[in-house]
């Protein structure tokens, strides 16, 4: 059968995740040191587990309203007002990935352009292509800062969306408030939608992370989630906050795609919002310090301030990051080459979301390759 007859053209523009390749490789190696996957090594709080179990036993297993449980949306909206001073419409989404898909689907017509700094989270390129948009990565090397002049230079009459990610994946960089303000100012002045991916906002180590919702509320949609902060990545819990005109359209598309976020997970998340998980933030700040100390003598990198990644430059004796990561895999250390997140292949991503012993073992082996 000629399957090309049945497959849409968009399938040729979307690639399988390069990260998942390393996830699968870990299952084939004996005693791997896996520094590849952004998966917290802590479990869900007991209170959230019990709340989910109680919800299931109480029969709360049916559809919720498409936008999410009203009591959960009210709580999120109140928390956003307390943080930003802005009243927002809230949509509970199936993770931040679900929110990204709905925001882009609602905003883009075929051929519309989306600007975002390079390096970027792997989904950005694929999701923009999936909905018929045109991804426009703007290089942010070597220090990964948000460069307003470079962003402005990339804007064309077809530009519709500016997308930022802070704390960033794969770099771990937190945009300072001045850069967040600059992004918000560009969006407002150039009449762009600013999508702010803030999935790691609960894991900022050197102070709070600013959100552009404070500075351009009419042009900003914030996407946040609970999987990383609470160790419930499989629950697929996130939310979008922003102007009603956009959130209403995202909710309409959710009706016909995800339908709603998982019901028992919504109940448990409402409980989780009152659980103190600051110990995770302290523990991961210490892991950040550990990995930076171990790598500092052999690698060049920008010190991360959030999330759980560091993005070192590959030593000069390797032609690219892919060759370096292949050499690391031969020693059973899994790290991700930079070309999965970038138009360049000069850096590699380490995830320190693992035990301190694994961090020490992995960094020792990586330093031996430098």
Provide the fold topology.
Blueprint: H1 18-26, E1 33-34, H2 46-57, H3 70-84, E2 89-93, H4 95-107, E3 113-118, H5 122-130, E4 134-139, H6 148-154, E5 159-165, H7 177-189, E6 193-197, E7 220-225, H8 227-230, E8 238-242, H9 244-255, H10 263-272, H11 278-295, E9 309-310, H12 321-330, E10 333-334, E11 336-337, E12 348-351, H13 356-369
Parallel strand pairs: 1-10, 3-4, 3-5, 5-6, 6-7
Antiparallel strand pairs: 2-8, 7-8, 9-12, 11-12
Briefly characterize the structure.
The protein is α/β, with parallel strands linked by helices and 370 residues long.
Notes on the protein architecture:
The strands form three sheets. Strands 2-8-7-6-5-3-4 form a seven-stranded mixed beta sheet, sandwiched between helices. A three-stranded antiparallel beta sheet has the order 9-12-11. Strands 1-10 form a two-stranded parallel ribbon. It is built from 13 helices and twelve strands. The protein has helices at 18-26, 46-57, 70-84, 95-107, 122-130, 148-154, 177-189, 227-230, 244-255, 263-272, 278-295, 321-330, 356-369; strands spanning 33-34, 89-93, 113-118, 134-139, 159-165, 193-197, 220-225, 238-242, 309-310, 333-334, 336-337, 348-351. The protein has two domains: 3-44 and 277-369, Aspartate Aminotransferase, domain 1, CATH 3.90.1150.10; 61-272, Type I PLP-dependent aspartate aminotransferase-like (Major domain) (Aspartate Aminotransferase, domain 2), CATH 3.40.640. The chain is of the alpha/beta class. Helix content is 39%, strand content 14%.
């Amino acid at each position: 059968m000629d399957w090309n007859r049945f497959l849409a053209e968009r399938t040729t523009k979307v690639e399988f995740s390069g990260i998942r390749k390393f996830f699968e490789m870990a299952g084939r190696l004996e005693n791997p040191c896996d520094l590849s996957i952004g998966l917290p090594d802590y479990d869900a709080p007991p209170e959230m587990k019990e709340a989910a179990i109680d919800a299931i036993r109480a029969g709360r297993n049916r559809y919720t309203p498409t936008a999410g449980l009203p009591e959960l949306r009210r709580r999120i909206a109140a928390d956003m007002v307390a943080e930003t001073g802005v009243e927002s419409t809230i949509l509970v989404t199936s993770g931040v990935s679900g929110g990204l898909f709905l925001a882009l689907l609602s905003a883009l017509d075929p051929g519309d352009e989306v600007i975002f700094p390079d390096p970027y989270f792997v989904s950005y390129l694929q999701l923009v292509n999936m909905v018929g948009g045109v991804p426009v990565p703007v290089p942010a090397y070597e220090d990964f800062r948000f460069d307003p002049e470079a962003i402005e230079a990339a804007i064309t009459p077809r530009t519709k969306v500016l997308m930022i990610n802070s704390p960033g994946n794969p770099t771990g960089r937190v945009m300072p408030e001045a850069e967040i303000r600059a992004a918000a100012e560009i969006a407002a002045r150039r009449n762009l939608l600013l999508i702010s991916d803030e999935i790691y906002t609960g894991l900022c180590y050197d102070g709070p992370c600013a959100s552009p919702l404070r500075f351009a509320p009419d042009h900003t949609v914030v996407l946040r989630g609970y999987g990383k902060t609470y160790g419930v990545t499989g629950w697929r819990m996130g939310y979008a906050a922003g102007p009603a005109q956009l959130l209403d359209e995202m909710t309409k598309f959710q009706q016909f795609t995800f339908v709603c976020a998982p019901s028992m997970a919504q109940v448990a998340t409402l409980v989780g919002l009152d659980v103190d998980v600051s110990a995770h933030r302290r523990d991961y700040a210490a892991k950040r310090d550990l990995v930076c100390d171990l790598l500092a003598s052999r690698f060049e990198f920008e010190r991360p301030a959030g999330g759980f990644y560091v993005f070192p430059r590959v030593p000069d004796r390797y032609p690219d990051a892919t060759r370096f990561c292949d050499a690391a895999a031969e020693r059973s250390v899994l790290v991700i080459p930079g070309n999965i997140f970038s138009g360049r292949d000069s850096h590699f991503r380490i995830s320190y979301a693992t035990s301190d012993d694994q961090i020490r073992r992995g960094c020792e082996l990586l330093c031996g390759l430098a």
